[in-house]
Amino acid sequence: MTSDFEKRLREESLSPVIRRYFSESLFPDHMPTKRLLKFQKEALREAVTRAYDKSPFYRHKMTEAGVKPRDIKNLNDLFKMPFTTKAELRQDPWALLTCDKKEVSMVHVSTGTTGGQPIYTMQTWKEYYLNTSINYPRLQPIEQVDLCFIALPYEMSAAGLDFHTRFLAGHQAAVVAVGKGGAYSTPEKTIKLIRDLRPAILVTSPSYAITLAETAAAASLDLPGLCLKKIWLAGEGCSPAFRNRIQKIWGTPVNFNYGATECGIIGIECDAHNGYHIAQGHVLMEIVDPKTEQVLEPGQIGELVITCLLRFDTPLIRYRTQDLGCLDLQPCPCGVTLERFHLRGRLNDQIVLQGRSYSPVYLENFLMQLPEVGNWYEFVVKPDENQRLKIRTELAGGIKPTPELAEKLAAEMENAINVPCEFEIVSKLPRPSKKAVRVVYE
Ligand SMILES: [Zn+2]
For the chain, what are the domain ranges? Predict the structure, then answer.
């Protein structure tokens, strides 16, 4: 694999910084920290210099902020650079380019969960090749023998293709592009393929893991009997308690993966299940106070700001993701020394109750520990009435709905989160065709 990569490095005349640091190994999770930080510093300087020299968009921003490439000498100079926002990316899709338009080989479209004009993400072939070839085998030990089912969207967004190519080109595994609920990829067909082909790895979203499990139950397919090696979840927030349910239903370990169409891979959860390791070969992460825009200390919750390290043709510098989280610099028991972070939901998704903000994932974690509650629920928010939390939910199989049960669940939930709760028990909630909607406004 390495020799093939080295050959391509020479042929493609990729950035010198990549050639210097990744000619022996493509694995940032094997790299000594000192070497990794040195790579990050050089990659950052190269990305900033290219951005200033070749992209009018970044040159203008940097001039306005009074910063020149020579001011970015070290990683801790990053804060001097201006932010890049979603609103800016929605304006001119070509503005970030530091290369000729003809070099662009792929365009992805953000799924637009926050609404508004879509964000188009351009990539050149070199960037795409780099981003999908450099991988993390200690965190994601996909083997050549593994048959991997990628049950994520392949249309528009980069989600499906990103895993597909990383597992195929990076890990030399076999992949099946099963997709997620597209015209040709119904849950029924996916379950048929799972039965016939017996994958080792499944990549999907938390809600679709449940949809597939319900379809498997209807088709009398014993999921634990499949002996899957691992399920990787991506694309939606997911609490530890909901993950536990998925692990139990599928009878297999489940880990999280975090990324975005605009930035690619950002974090990979290890088997310690205690936060994500940062994909430090691909990105730099800062946690910033969304209001004051100051960089926060480890442990403080703020907005995740991402700088891509393997993108020199379409640089993305200090991108404000609108996702919340905090850094955790404690060593991880798994032994991987890449830094870690915890996610705390989306900035615009927080539920305000009695003047306090709650992440739906935080609330879900308590809800999913109530055994009578089913796997489909909604938090119902009435903007003018934020004194209590209303939860509309299905019940677990075999549980009968009674007013007493609704009261008992409300009391248990209230006990956990310290806010009055109300349960509306329904027989069936609609299954999502896109990302699961956990918060509805009425
Ligand atoms: Zn770990």
Answer: 351-441
